[in-house]
Amino acid sequence: MVIDPEGLVRQQAGAHREVLVDVLDIDAVRRTRTYGTAGVSRPLVLLAERDRPVPLPAYGGALSAPPWARDHLDHPRHEAEERP
């Protein structure tokens, strides 16, 4: 399955083994990271660099702040907090 940065399915394999090839639109990735999915949600912005990783036991991993995330004090979640 190939899914674009907005979450839309671009290609889906059939019942048999198949190799799917698609073009990665880097500009679409940047737009989605900047403006969010459908231009309304930016869930990764909610993760600040100083936050602890969110455990994802079903996947055997954790969700942490992505490398491009910045710790914005103007974000509503961090307005009342002070920097460490």
Strand order across the largest sheet: 1-2
Strand content: 5-15%
Biggest β-sheet strands, sense, barrel: 2 strands, antiparallel
Number of strands: 4
The helix fraction, in percent, is 10-25%
Radius of gyration: 17 Å
Q: What best-fitting shape do the alpha-carbon axes yield?
A: flat
How would you classify the helix and strand content by structural class? Answer: alpha+beta
Tags for this entry?
84 residues; disordered C terminus; two-stranded antiparallel ribbon; two-stranded antiparallel sheet; 2 domains; 13% strand; flat; alpha+beta
Description:
The chain starts with a strand and ends in a 21-residue tail after the last strand. It folds into 2 domains: 1-41, no CATH class; 43-84, no CATH class. The strands form 2 sheets. It has a two-stranded antiparallel sheet. It is an alpha+beta fold and 84 residues long. It contains 1 helix and 4 strands, in the order ββαββ. Mean pLDDT is 76; it is low at 71-84.
Topology of helices and strands:
Layout: E1 2-3, E2 9-11, H1 26-35, E3 54-56, E4 61-63
Antiparallel strand pairs: 1-2, 3-4
Biased composition (Basic and acidic residues): 69-84
Region (Disordered): 58-84
What does this entry show, briefly?
Residues 69-84 have a biased composition (Basic and acidic residues). It is built from 1 helix and 4 strands.
